[in-house]
Design brief:
The structure is a single chain. By secondary structure, the chain is an alpha/beta fold. The protein has two domains: 206 residues, Vaccinia Virus protein VP39 (Rossmann fold), CATH 3.40.50; 38 residues, no CATH class. Helices cover 21% and strands 15% of the residues. The protein has seven helices and nine strands. Helix 2 links the parallel strand 1 and strand 2. The protein is elongated.
């Protein structure tokens, strides 16, 4: 049985060549540096949450530590917040905030940015909360970052619009396509993708990058591009993801998805030969 996914587009993600890690996880530091040089933001002010200790997998540490930026680092976990405060203890240009960012007042992102007196057109906003990233960006109304770096679920196919339920106890994430559509509603265009982060700039500065086509299929291929379909006999076929990504790399096969018992998986409206017939 032949089971593959055809590729009709060649990836052309031009900014990925600038990838570099200082504290970021997958080359984001270098991409951010290049974007900042290109768009020349009005304010050298960045915001990141969840910030952890302010350094681990941070997309803003490099801007603050080596670029002289100011900003706000937001972390809900009280123990991580203590480490965050230690990281920036000697930097008076950084506000450390121990709050859980919510969708509505009094702890919406707008409210927290009001509290730290962030500039309305701040330079960089980094959103990485493993779940409600989409909903928090959607809830932002009064602030308009020049660059938004936001995490998406890298196992969702490019043609799927998926957004998890708007609830803090759920951690499923959203698809890249969902973020692209939200970004356009908010006046942003996609300029780059790493494995699980998307980079959006204001649409009026998109042309500065000379990107010929930011169609999702040219910019990104999911780390697992899965498909599920069924045969006439109700056998469920699975292709494009052979193991779980975040749970011990447990193998996944079509057999894990069968709903009907083997003897029930027949298509009675067609004539067939016995299995051993020539």
């Amino acid at each position: 049985m032949k089971l593959t996914i055809a590729r009709f587009f060649e990836i052309d993600n031009p900014l990925i060549k600038y990838s570099k890690n200082i504290t970021s996880q997958d080359g984001e530091d270098g991409v951010i540096e290049h974007i900042i040089k290109t768009i020349a933001p009005e304010n050298s002010y960045c915001v990141e949450f969840g910030a952890w200790d302010g350094k681990y997998c941070s997309n803003c540490f490099n801007l603050i530590e080596h670029g002289g930026w100011s900003g706000a680092m937001i972390e809900a976990n009280s123990e991580k917040y203590k480490e965050l405060v230690q990281t920036y203890a000697s930097n008076v240009k950084v506000s450390c905030v121990n709050k859980f960012v919510q969708f509505d007042s009094p702890n919406s992102l707008d409210d927290i940015l009001d509290e730290v007196q962030a500039p309305e057109n701040l330079g960089v906003l980094s959103i990485d909360i493993d779940g409600n990233d989409y909903h928090v960006w959607e809830s932002l109304k009064r602030y308009h970052p020049e660059l938004v770096v936001i995490e998406f679920n890298p196992t969702v196919p490019n043609d799927v619009i998926f957004v998890q339920e708007r609830a803090h106890h759920i951690t499923q994430g959203c698809s890249l396509l969902a973020l692209i559509l939200l970004g356009r509603e908010k006046g942003y265009e996609l300029v780059c993708c790493t494995r699980w982060n998307a980079f959006f700039v204001k649409k009026e500065k998109y042309s500065l990058f000379g990107i010929q086509d930011n169609l999702i299929f040219r910019m990104y291929t999911p780390i697992q591009d899965g498909r599920i379909f069924q045969g006439y006999d109700s056998y469920i076929h699975v292709t494009g993801f052979d193991r779980l990504v975040w749970k011990g790399r447990i193998p996944v096969s079509s057999e894990n998805f069968q709903i009907m018992e083997k003897e029930q998986r027949v298509f009675s409206d067609v004539q067939t030969l016995p299995r051993d017939a020539t």
